[in-house]
Design brief:
This protein is an alpha+beta fold and about 300 residues long. Helix content is about 35%, strand content about 20%.
């Protein structure tokens, strides 16, 4: 298993040819490109990568170079909050990898991006250099349009790079964190006020579910309102619990959840947790899955006898 997952979010989701060039740029030797999810209303794409730090960092630098050439935030429109062409780049430890390795990779990338591209860089979550910068929402508050004024405040000097906004690429946030599940619930109404009220009731900061962040948006391409959620620790609130609460809050406001969607990939344990809750099983783990049991008990390949080809 690779040591790290990396999930760069770029501010482009409407031009497939540009997204393809961004994906090609980051696909450096040793980097596994696992998924690309784009959304035109958010005007954002999420790339899921895996690899070792020494392979991921050159690929990510190539991603920044391409994004700066292709994306101009002065002409960018979308419902999702953003401050940068490459908005946020989190590293996530996989398997037994310690969080310290993800933190080291984030800090190494941040220093390189700040000096090479003259971008203001902020470190967040486990890689944060200051406790008040752990929260991505806190760093990104005000968006690209108001970020120049934020940079004028001595409290918001960047961790790396110049204390001035890049004219077209803005700023960027780099960090290390636990798995995050991004899930959207599309309502059967166009009333964005309903989605915003549901999001406010669901998110932790409004007294809702632990480790859940949520916003309400209007999706012009679908004529629907959406509750967009980030589950920052599925061990505290599962995907099933979050969606069930959204359904309850929507019904209370005269709407219902029409569909849901995942952005990026889902950790296996999070999927098992959903299945266990829906089926009301006391326990469900990977050893109870047919394919996992077959993989675990598969016989080892036979070794060729002495003297045969390959022996």
């Amino acid at each position: 298993m690779p040591a790290l997952e990396c999930v760069p979010n770029v501010s482009e989701g409407r031009r497939p040819e540009v997204v393809a060039r961004l994906a090609a740029a980051v696909s450096a030797p040793g980097v596994q490109l696992l998924d690309v999810s784009s959304d035109p209303d958010h005007n954002r794409s999420v790339l899921t990568l895996a690899g070792e730090p020494e392979d991921l960092i050159p690929g990510l630098l190539a991603l920044y170079e391409t994004a700066l050439a292709e994306i101009d935030l002065r002409r960018h429109e979308g419902v999702h909050p953003r401050i940068g062409a490459v908005d946020v780049v989190p590293f996530v430890p996989l398997g037994e990898t310690p969080m310290a390795m993800a933190v080291a990779a984030a800090r190494r990338l941040a220093a390189a991006v700040g000096s090479r591209f003259e971008l203001p860089v902020y470190l967040y979550e486990e890689a944060a250099a200051r406790p008040e910068r752990r929260s991505l929402a806190s760093i990104r508050r005000g968006g690209f349009e108001d970020f120049a004024a934020k940079l004028a405040d001595p409290l918001w000097q960047p961790d790396h790079g110049p204390a001035r906004l890049h004219p077209s690429a803005g700023a960027t946030v780099i960090g290390a964190r636990f798995y995050l599940i991004a899930c959207n619930a599309v309502l059967d109404t166009a009333e964005v006020t309903v989605a915003r009220a549901v999001a406010a009731a669901v998110r932790e900061s409004g007294g809702g579910l632990p480790a859940v962040r949520a916003l309400g948006f209007y999706l012009a391409s679908r004529g629907r309102a959406q509750v967009s959620m980030n589950l920052v620790d599925y061990r505290r609130t599962s995907l099933w619990q979050a969606l069930a609460r959204v359904c309850e809050e929507a019904v209370a406001r005269g709407a219902r959840v029409e569909s849901s969607e995942l952005v990026g990939l889902l950790p296996r344990q999070a999927a098992l947790d959903v299945a266990r809750e829906v089926l009301r099983l006391p326990v469900l783990d990977a050893t109870q899955l047919l394919e996992e049991r077959l993989r675990a008990t598969a016989p080892a390949p036979a070794r060729p006898a002495r003297g045969e080809p390959g022996g």
